[in-house]
Design a protein that fits this description.
single chain, ten-stranded antiparallel beta sheet, two-stranded antiparallel ribbon, 60% helix
Length: 542
Amino acid sequence: MIDSIKPNEWKRFLWAAIACFIIYAAVDIAPMFASIASGELNTKVIEKSTAESRAAAFAEKQTGLTVKSAKAVHQTDKIMNGYLSKNKLTKTYADKYDSSFPTDTFQVDLKFIGGGSGFVYVHMQSEKIVAWRFLIDGEELSDADKTKEAIAFLTNQSFSGVEFQGNQILDNGDWQGQPKTDYAIKDAKLTIHIDARTVDGRTVITKYKPAFAAPDDYVSYVKNQDKIAGFLTGFGYLFMSFVLFILAIIYAVLYRKFTSFKYGIILTIIYFITYIIMNLNVLDGIRASMGEADMAGATTTVTAVVTVLLTIPMAGAIYISLIAGDGLWKAQGRALWPRFGQKGYGDHVWRSVGLAYLFAIILFALQSVIFIALRLTIGTWDTSDATQSPYNMSILWLMPVLAWAAAISEEAVFRFFGIGLFRKWFKNTFAAALLPTFFWALGHVMYPFYPSSTRLIELMIIGLIFSFIFVRYGLITSMFTHAIFNSVAVGLSLLTIGTAPNIISAIFFSVLPVLIAFVLKYLSHKKEKKPSVTTTPPLEQL
């Protein structure tokens, strides 16, 4: 029997959702679009193909070599962006320095015919070449000649009349210097690295890398926080997810009489497809995270193959969690996962999606309020991450697919099976929700928020709300809520980037749960209205 949702259950949350929508619109949506309208948030980014062409032409002119291939990825200075965010200097930096020393660029990886490679950094809005490094054959200059060439080059690069301090030749052969005056933002100072060599009888500036460096104490703090986050994710999330997988196998066998191993196949297939799409779509982000590594392309290819192979056991974990969770809950007298064919299934799905949109609105406002509170109390700030950049998506409009991979996997493992397991052990639903919510939250602490406890605190609260939704209204409602919450968040990013495919994708994936629920309701009602088939019993049974 289905744990039914009352027809007017949505009315209990309507006014809360309206109030939360007003809060969220005022706190997040309105400021975002105001920033776009004022030009403070510049979303007019050039195409990657434009950056590749610009970089190739520059490299050929600079080196005299012919470019064989060019590949652009979005590169970001995570440390410096975080420092600016923490000190509320992002706009100040953008106004004063971004045109020449952007913290976000298109890094174009180049290969030359006949050997050699290079990296050219292109401004994402203006197309300006802002930095480069060429790994080509040539004759090394003496330290004195290199210093002379560096100063002459900088004079032609709008540094005319600027004196440099700390001038030195580093162990790697680079000339390094810092402008004596200006070129500083709080405690971060501009440092320039230059290399030059003789190629075919002429001097070529093979490296020009200007960048603001955050102070050592900030860098040390971030590295320590990343180390803590890595440990928490490795042990608390990955290891405990493996433990839950083993327990799911055991309980799927122990409670097999309450369920069926034919359940969960469709959801597992959907997860498998969406997870592969999601991970193959972010390969440029992985490549960008490797910086100027020589084997970045090959490593990315290996990562793609490994990702596909690992998806198979991960999909198996989702499948077995669905089976074990179904058996555990039914053994405890709850039917939290209705399935197609049961009476009332269509109405349950339709009411679930209605509640899910209301819950998603409430969660958006709650998340905004939590972040405001964390900024005021523990000084939370965020930064950029190349692996999560929308500009590193191979097919940007497919970005919302990740919402469904996360919704299916996380609700199946941590809510459906996790809470069901600990509820059997602890005999208390709230206590049962705490541990799986904690494990789930630990899986997000490596997101670019500092201190690393930020997302742990936020997602413990959000996760307990998801747990309430699941226990009170079932797996379908919690999955819809999770998918809508993620889809709309990603959709807003697509809307700010613009272009027709992205806008259509944002709208489509945001309303997709309604379309799915409508189709399931229609097909379910059609099946329920179909007259039952009767046969004449054998004579000996009359």
